[in-house]
Structures are given as C-alpha cells and as structure tokens.
C-alpha cells in the first residue's frame, strides 16, 4: 500500500510540475518579419533556402511554417481566420467558393494594384492561365470585386509521357512521340505485338478519364460546342460526342491501353511507368518528381495527347498549381507583397523548379529548367480547366460519362449506348433545376 | 459407442482449425508491422521493385537519416512530455470523478454523467474552431499547457466511464471497513478504491498514452512554433503532396511505435486483467 501511495504521490508531483512549467509564458523570438504558412512538404527546403537568400539581400526575415497534411492545414487556416491569427502570407486549398468567402470576410488583400504597377510588370511574369485561377472577373457569380487576389507559385499540366527505351525496343524514334491519333493507334498495335503494356493512368479514379475525354472533345468539336453541351444546348448523342467516346474503343482495340486500366489508381500507374513496365502514361506534371524518386534513370518525355483532327486545337487541363495570398489584416502587407514579387521573379522560379521539379509560374524561367519540365510548361498555351469555363457540368452527368467510358473500354457498352445514357441523365438533371 | 480414437481425432481437428484461424488473424495483425520494418530498411527505388519481406541489402542509415531530417530528438522529448502529462492528468481527474459518480449522491449526478458520456460522441474535428478561439482568448494557444489541457479533456469521458463501471462493482463492505478504521471519503478513494483499480487504471493509461502519442491534428492546430510540435508531426514531413519518402517514413514510424510497444509490454499483465475484470473485485 505504501509503495502504491508513494508512486501515486510522485505522479501527482510530476503532473503539478508539468502544469506549472506549461504556465511559463513562451515568447516568440520576434525576429520574423514575414510569416508564411504552407502545406508543400516537397518545397520546404527550397523555400527555406530562398528565405535565406531574401534575408541576405534585403535584411527582411521570412519564416516558412510547414503544416501537413493538407486537410489539417486547411482546418488550421480556417480556425486562424476565425481567431484573427492568420499569418502574413498563406495559401487556400479548396474550391473557388472557399477562396471567395475569405475575400468577402476581408482576410485576403487584393493584389491588382500591385500587379498593374509599371505597366503590369509583375502581372506579365506569369502564364495568363496560371493567374486566372486567382482572378475574379467582372460579373462573377461569387459577387467579388473583379481583380487578382493570389500569386501563383507554380503551375501544372496533365499530358502524356512516353518511355524512350521502350520506344527504341519497338523500333520507334525515341525523340519523336506520336503526332496524330492514327500514329498513336499504330504504336498501340506494335505494343500489342511486342506483348508490352501500353498506356497506364489513374483511370480507376475516374476524373482522369474525364480529363482525357474533355481534351479530345475540345479537339474534335471546339470549346464553344463543349460549353454548349454543358449548358444543355447540344446533346451528348451528337455525332461529335459519339466520336469522342469511340476513341476509347479504338484505343482499346488497337492494344494501346494497359490491362486493368479501368480500375488502376494513379499510384499504381506511376509505379508501372517508373519501373519501365508501360510505354505511355497519362499523368500530371507532378509525375516528374514522382518518377525521379522511383527511378532516377528513367528516360522519358512529355507530349500533348495526339490530335484527332486539325479542325480545333488540342486542349489539356492545366493552370495554377499552388498559390499564395497576402492577409488583408497583416501589419506587414507591403513587405509581404514585395517578398512574393521577388519569389516569382525568373531566377527564384527557376531555382524552385530545379529544386522541386514543379513547373514554374513565371513564363520567363522556362529556358532555365530541365527539358521534360519545360515541355510540360510549354503546354500551358494549350491549357484549360473546368474552373475557368464559367459553367460546370452536373456531377451525375460527369460520373455517367466517365463510368460509361470505362464500360466501353471493357467492352460492356457501345459508344452510342453510353451517349444515350449520359444524355438521359443530363435531361433528368436539367429538369430538376428548371 | 464412439471410440477413444474418434474423440482424439475430433479434438485434434478442432484444435487444428482453431489454431489455423488464430494463426491467420495473428499473421494479418503482424504483417503490416513486418512490412513497415522491412520497408524502413529499403531504398525509395527498391521499395517499389523488391516485394520481399527481407530486403536484399539492409539500409540501416534510413533510421539515422529519419532521426536527423525529421528532427526527432526534440519532437521525441515533446511527445514523451505531453504523453506523461496528459496521462497523469487523466488518471488523476478521471479516477476522482468516476469515484464521485459511483459513490457520492448529489443532485444532477446522472445528468452530469450523461453529459460526459455524450462528449464521447463528438468528434474532435467538430470542435476545432471553437477550441482554437477559446484557447486564443485564454492566451493558451501555442503553449504546451493549452495542448495538455485539451488532450486531458479528450481522454476524460472514456476514462471516467471505464473507472465508474469498475467502482460500481466494488463491494461496499470494503469501504465500510475503511470507514470504521477512520478513513474519510478522500481517504477511501486513495487507500481503497485506487489500489483495487490498478488493472483498469492500466487500461486507462495505455488507451490514453496511445491516443496522445499518435495525435497530431490538434497539435498542428494549436501550435504555430515547430519546437513545440509532437513526434507525429515530424513523421508528416516525409509525406509530400505527390511523393512520399517511404523508407524514411517507415523508419520514423518504427521509431515512433517503439515506446508504445514497450509500454504495452510492461503493462500487459494489468491490461489483460483490466479487460477481463468484473468477475471478482476486491
């Protein structure tokens, strides 16, 4: 009993000691002038290095604070906004709706006047499409004053990549990816004959199918007709849509698609391509980093999905990868803006791209980065994204289209059947909203 | 009439089936642990190519690298500090509260107890913003004390429930005997109830230690200063947006799992007792 008593007393003593030690106020060093909150683990060392360079140049200390995973980071930002504790610079993860609610509450500084200074010098650093994600146009549905509210740090595009060694093995020129869809199908036949795996991608996570289908829809019928379909003015049973759906049947029949593709998650697809077990992959520009980690010796390059027709340009999904915002209530607004301007200048952007393998948002830095990254970045001219179309398709319609494509690939349904089903769902959804 | 051989064969077959089943369950439980240790000794490249449990080349340097890159030294001490403080706090407060709920008669006792139980149903994420604002107003945000108090609060409901269930079954005669010897209510709690509750206290300790040791979301929310963060936050640094550094992450996880495994092994005897408690108390 005595032993237990003394043990318990000791525990109680330690607890009281701890509580009192916790009461000692913790003072921050107070040296940090600008605080940046971010969630980008892979960019943390590069940010730290750039912060050192900025301090050496200007004497202003920038403290990058990393909070991961990204969903916990988002919660922290929301809580900090409620508690009026937002840092000088931060990023918002989520939809444009969340972004707009922060602007409405006065948590984000409008950057248009800074971007427009000196004949829009800062604004001209960026790919226009990278800036679009952070921009609210006249008459936007969020009721936000038109302007720019964020600074893109990097960009991303989703394209095709091919394995150069396997191209050689197939007797193809490793420096010439297919230029047309017909060429792509021919390579598919060679892949089948050589008993290799063709295209891998995360088509089990169906949004990537949606992405490729939209790319070809833009190429076959043009942007206006795609938008008209979303608005309900053109049916999915239109011959152009049947043509888009038929491409997937053609790809499957040629032997281009790897086995198990419809249930494949992107991590598996990345693993297969990095280990040289697939000739093609359809993936985002982040894959450069992923492939480098999995197989540094991998020889590959990026290319636009080969066009079906010359009638309309090929469009791919792309835009701003990560963006930073300046707190509207920060005491260091001006310093924060100055730092972001410096961070997005060509030399710093080139350093970030080189150190992190992410595409720079500054278009002038393309010439200073590795070829595969530059190829991904150059495709920004062909980039689009559903977020900037101004209209969005109903979720059940997107799901029906993507799952329908999966059914076409496994030979369960014909393109015409899928088009009919998607149109029926579209009409049902339109009726609900009327 | 069935022969002895029949019963012997039946017994052996039944035992074989039971043991096969148990072996399967045990393997399923231990396999992730083995995979974690195995992956911690591979490279980023071989982790995707070499699927064997025993790596061809052992890369013990991953442990050193994870320790240095993750800044584990500081975070490890922080986690030990938070775990010890929170567990002591929970054991102290919940044992007193549970004893009061079990033995004292006061108005609103049941309502208060049900409120505590209802708190168990609220997910921690649901109270993040409110907690952040409250800690901010109390000037406890970004302090170790703020985090410790929050974590004590998180673990109280379950611990009170476990201990109250135990105290309810404790024979009243033991307390009467102590009272005759001149013990006060606090004295009975201290000298009689607590020593008898050792197995349940062991369960409370291990459950809460595990909870605090593995917690990081609340820490991420409350702390701005990295030097105050617990070990689990350091592990997250190996997990990128698109790339995860698996060997370092697995090495880090192995390091992080060790103290809890050791604690479990030390308290195993009491935990088993605690789980099976109920038949005889006192």
From TrEMBL, chain A:
Gene3D superfamilies: Periplasmic binding protein-like II. Keywords: Signal, Transport. GO terms for biological process: maltodextrin transmembrane transport; maltose transport. GO terms for cellular component: ATP-binding cassette (ABC) transporter complex, substrate-binding subunit-containing. It holds the Pfam family SBP_bac_8. One of its GO terms (molecular function) is maltose binding. InterPro entries: SBP. It comes from the Bacteria. PANTHER family: MALTOSE-BINDING PERIPLASMIC PROTEIN, MALTOSE_MALTODEXTRIN-BINDING PERIPLASMIC PROTEIN. Belongs to the bacterial solute-binding protein 1 family. This is ABC transporter substrate-binding protein.
From TrEMBL, chain B:
Keywords: Cell membrane, Membrane, Transmembrane, Transmembrane helix, Transport. It is found in: Cell membrane. Its main location: membrane. The keyword Membrane applies. It comes from the Bacteria. Residues 76-267 form the ABC transmembrane type-1 domain. This is Sugar permease. It comes from Candidatus Sherwoodlollariibacterium unditelluris.
